[in-house]
Amino acid sequence: MKTKDIVIFLALILLACNRNNTNRGAESTITMQTKQQVMSIALDYVRVKFNDSEENVLADGKVKIGDNQLTYIADPKEIVLGLIDNDENEDAIITISSQKGKFRSKTEQLILISTGGKLVLSQVISDNMKIIGLKDRIVTGEISKFPPDSPNVDCPICQEIVKYHFKDDKLVKIN
After folding, report:
1. How far apart, in whole angstroms, are the C-alpha atoms of residue 129 and residue 80?
2. Where are the beta strands (DSSP E) in 83-137?
3. Which residue, among 127, 137, 110, has the nearest Cα to 161 in the 3D structure?
4. Which burial class, exposed, middle or buried, applies to 51 when counting CB atoms under 10 A from its CB (0-12, 13-18, 19+)?
5. What residues does each domain of the chain span?
6. C-alpha distances in angstroms, 50 versus 53, 69, 98?
7. By CB count within 10 A, which of 3, 14, 104, 170 is most buried?
8. What is the DSSP letter of 153?
9. Which percentage of the chain shows pLDDT scores above 70?
10. Spatial separation of the C-alpha atoms in residues 126 and 97, rounded to whole Å
């Protein structure tokens, strides 16, 4: 191979690598914007529950909103993006947890469906569930067989796996 051919070959490889990184950057920006929109909707959902509350952003990105009796926590790491309804627009789920004093009270899953290019709160599921997957339009969650204030709430063998799919404009349990 001639030097000229090697230079052209390397230039094409570098160009291809740069194009892939550019696409990832654009995808990352879209994902970040979507997650910011999800957080905004979640925080608005929580804020209306209080007449007077404090709001704190923690170092790990979690946002706590509450008063001296009840606190809600929205964690951007609890956002799951994917296809839920029957269109090809990315939807989202965020789990909001609450605690009374130092004890976990419940979790709520906010189901956000993309409509007209914006995410809209479609449904709230209050099953003390942890979302463990969203694949092929099926939402998979884990629900403890114990109440949230039980010492056994996080027992690994005490969890039930549940699945939901979108039907008639809401998530419906399928098992």
Report:
1. 13
2. 91-100, 103-115, 118-125, 129-135
3. 127
4. exposed
5. 6-173
6. 6, 11, 13
7. 104
8. T
9. 83
10. 10
